[in-house]
Amino acid sequence: MSTTEIPLYSAELVQEGSAYKLVVTDRLRHTVQTAYVSRRAVEQLPAFLSKLDSPNLRGFRRR
Q1: pLDDT at residue 27 tops 90
Q2: Three-class DSSP labels, 2-63
Q3: Hey, what long-range contacts does 32-39 have (CB within 8 A, 24 or more apart)?
């Protein structure tokens, strides 16, 4: 991370026994939101993240 980058959100995926919990922290407002997600959603996370980085989404993100 460069000195000009400011983290806005951070996220953790936590396993609680057989359940999965997504914990998202808003680092500007100092708030935390949690949501339980299905195992299927957890398994699909790598594919979802790779789609966010695909060339087809160039209009969606700016670098």
Answers
A1: yes
A2: CCCCCCCEEEEEEEECCEEEEEEEECCCCEEEEEEECHHHHHHHHHHHHHHCCHHHCCCCCC
A3: 37/13
3-state secondary structure of 10: strand
Residue 42, classed as helix, strand or coil, is helix
pTM (predicted TM-score): 0.73
Tokens 């100092």 correspond to what residue? 30
**Does residue 61 surpass a pLDDT of 80?**
no
Pair 7, 27: CB distance under 8 Å: yes
Would you state the structure tokens that stand for residue 35, as one six-digit string?
A: 């949501």
